[in-house]
Design brief:
The complex is a heterodimer of chains A (about 130) and B (about 190). By secondary structure, chain A is mostly beta strands. Chain A is about 10% helix and about 45% strand. The longest helix of chain A is centred in the N-terminal third of the chain and has 15 residues, at about 1-15. Classes of the chains: A mainly beta (about 130), B alpha/beta (about 190).
């Protein structure tokens, strides 16, 4: 009996130690309530017009609805406000791949940061 | 004394009627949606189309210069009275910010044509007056349509809105971009959408 209790305690302890996923924190800002197996992004500059295109791909750990948005920055890391930097909602399936495509609002945009969260509030300002 | 009590009661009653108005942060507005088309639907449609236009790359002129765009007819084929500018304004702002397009306003701003009359006036410094042959002719035209369809599904009302837009090359009449965004809603069967 004592052994069983020890075993249960050990497995609970080990579950708590499940390591969080590794991702580039300069590119992603992900809240802890978003459960992912993996996430990464690939970007390229379109030769024809210098437009930056980004593709985000990942795998979800569970069925969940998340919000994501991308903020774009110029050479001086000044944020370029744009209608394209809006929260979008995505339904992710457990152990399934997801793929999001993003496009820079202008040629001035050279870097980006992607925000992912489960909750963005209702927008009501007190 | 009785008068004071009545006044106090009236004040208490009236203060209970004060309605609370709060501002909404448009960046993360997730408040309840309505069955009719609303601002967020236009923002969603515009954002989706802008992304598609920029991703396709067809609005990038080979020499890097911006195209001259004119906003043509946007047909409202819904049961609602819509200011289609809500849709086109977001698109033209984003396209202008992208540096790929400049919008000519000669059709919508009467002053563009009327300003030519100043050429005859001795009251105006002619250096600032628009000369002949100086207006930029449009190269591309943005046109579109907003549709609405309604169905009854399991006692509820299903409403489908379709925003479709296209950009035409005015030099040859060919469509260089076409985009569509569907917004579907399920509402109570008595919901008003007109």
């Amino acid at each position: 009996m004592k052994n069983k209790i020890l075993l249960i305690m050990l497995s609970v302890f080990l579950l708590g130690c499940a390591s969080p996923i590794e991702y580039d924190r300069e590119i992603f800002s992900i809240t802890s309530d978003v459960k992912l197996e993996s996430i990464n992004s690939v970007s390229n500059v379109r030769e024809r017009d210098g437009q930056v295109l980004v593709q985000v791909q990942g795998v979800s750990s569970k069925n969940q609805s998340v919000y994501y948005k991308v903020e774009w920055f110029d050479y001086n890391f000044i944020n370029i406000s744009s209608d394209l930097s809006r929260w979008k909602r995505a339904n992710l399936r457990e152990n399934s791949d997801f793929l999001w495509k993003m496009v820079a609002p202008s040629k001035r945009a050279v870097s980006y940061k992607i925000y992912i969260t489960r909750e963005i509030g209702d927008g009501l300002l007190d | 004394m009785k008068k004071y009590v009545v006044m106090l009661l009236a004040m208490l009653f009236l203060s209970g009627c004060v309605t609370k108005t709060v501002l909404i942060d448009t960046e993360n507005d997730t408040t309840e949606r309505v069955a009719a088309l609303e601002g967020r639907d236009f923002e969603d449609a515009a954002s989706s189309m802008i992304e598609d236009m920029l991703e396709m790359g067809t609005l990038s002129k080979p020499n890097g210069q911006p195209y001259i765009l004119i906003i043509s007819r946007i047909e409202n084929d819904t049961m609602q009275r819509i200011d289609v500018d809500e849709l086109t304004k977001s698109i033209r702002i984003a396209l202008m910010k992208s540096g790929k397009v400049r919008v000519t306003a000669f059709q919508e701003d009467n002053m563009v044509m009327q300003s030519a009359q100043l050429r005859k006036s001795k009251e105006f410094n002619q250096a600032n007056v628009r000369q002949k042959n100086s207006l930029a002719a449009p190269e591309l035209s943005l046109s579109g349509k907003i549709n609405q369809r309604e169905f009854r599904v399991s006692g509820d009302k299903r409403i489908e809105y379709r925003f479709s837009m296209s950009i035409t090359d005015l030099s040859n009449g060919l469509t260089v971009w076409e985009g569509e965004k569907k917004i579907k809603k399920i509402a109570d069967k008595n919901a008003v959408t007109w």
